[in-house]
Write a structure and sequence with these properties.
Blueprint (H helix, E strand, L loop, with lengths): L1 H18 L8 H23 L2 H18 L7 H29 L1
Length: about 110
């Protein structure tokens, strides 16, 4: 549930900031980009601190959902979303390798 909670918290904070006019300084797609980057950074932090691969996968799923909902017919953020998801997936791979090495060394 941790990954879904991260997506939910960032989405709720984004909605509240938008209600108070904070988004008006950025274009809609720039605001979405900033939120996706923040979620990606949180996912990497979670991987580094908790080694929670399932949380990172849930976050990836949430990012894809945000992209599909915000840009159903356009590709303006496709590259950025692809980069963020690739970074998270590489982080998952590194976490898995680190975990396996840690288990082998302790055995």
């Amino acid at each position: 549930y941790l990954g879904w909670m991260v997506i939910g918290v960032v989405a709720n904070v984004s909605i509240h900031l938008k209600q108070y006019g904070f988004e008006t300084t950025l274009a809609g797609s720039a605001w979405t980009s900033l939120m996706i980057i923040m979620v990606g950074m949180i996912a990497l932090w979670l991987l580094a601190r908790t080694d929670s691969i399932s949380a990172a996968i849930a976050i990836i799923w949430g990012i894809i959902g945000i992209y599909v909902k915000q840009f159903p017919s356009g590709t303006s953020l496709l590259f950025q979303v692809s980069v963020i998801l690739t970074i998270i997936l590489v982080g998952i791979g590194i976490a898995r390798i680190y975990r396996k090495r840690k288990i082998i060394k302790s055995a």
